[in-house]
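Chapter summary example.
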Amino acid sequence: MPNALVIKIGLISVLLIIAALAMPAAISGLWAGRIENALAENGFATTSIGKSSVRKGRIVIQDIALDPDRFSTMDNLSVVTPLLKGIFTPSTSTVTIDGLALSGEWTPPLMPDISGWDGRLPPLPSFDKTVLNSGQADILTTAGALRLNAKGQLTRTPEKSTFEAALWGKQHQLNLDSLWKGTIAPDGSFQVETEIREARLNTDRLQATRVNGWGSLSRQAKTIPVISGQLDAGQIDFSGTIFSKVTLTVDGPIDGYHLIASGQAAGFQNLSFYADVKKENSDFQIDITVLADDVEGLLAFLLKIRNSMEGITSPFGAFSRLMITPGNLARLKATMKDWEYDHTELQIKGPLSDLTSKIVATNTQNNATEQYVISLNPAE
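The structure predicted for these 380 residues follows.
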């Protein structure tokens, strides 16, 4: 009998040892499946995991491929969770991501095409906290290849999820230093804010330096998102036409926003512009004023703008219908050569699909004001 008891105790001990040895593998395997499901919910349905293990109370999942060709990958994902509670309630866990690398293409205004991602916007996170220690995205655009880096964290509560992140990049095409924060509610409401601390853009058609500003995008449940923000640029070079001290503000719902831009034209004496643009349904209402001391400078500016916009299609291609041609500008100059004036201004108004334009020259003497008006359209 004693021998039988010893044998039973021995067998139980062996089973307990086997269970203890198998428990980490079972837990890590369970969490590997959960992570695959969580990534699938976020649009990465073809994820494969290299290996998983338990290390010092932490579930570690390594060598994650987010697409079959391994263009998008994740070096390491670790989960810290109360052992028993985490098995049955995974949402109480903290997930930390290291070495996230995404690859894809982007042609605005479409959504980026990220390798392995099906384009679905992610749902609310299923874990108490998600931390991104290091992330990198290599995106091929019409302006060239861009590389962006990111880090941040997202914290979930029953009422809302909050996030903070830093997004930056340092390369020839884009130099960016920005901070992001926001909240997301279960009913679909959200508030996203960004601070552009410093940015520089360098593409074939557009270069911008000393850029900074802020932006906000928010939505109440089941309503149209509202955007607001301001950008300031020390200099913008648009295909050879250079502007300085440019300020751009935007405000309103995304399907009917109001945009205001102002600045000065470099290389022209006392030439400034003011643009007021309102999006209405499928069209834009335009109100642009260009102020100049003299007609010669104004007409030279118009010719430079025309040359800068060659090859640009809709919607900005509509400005090509304003008869800004060398022959028409010569007609305007000949007509206005004998005018006496203090300053001139170009006015462009109307819907983008049917713009009208005219030059107004104002002469003020002895408290009396006289104006000369001529349309850019020779038929008017």
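To summarize the output: Helices lie at 2-41, 83-88, 295-308, 326-336.
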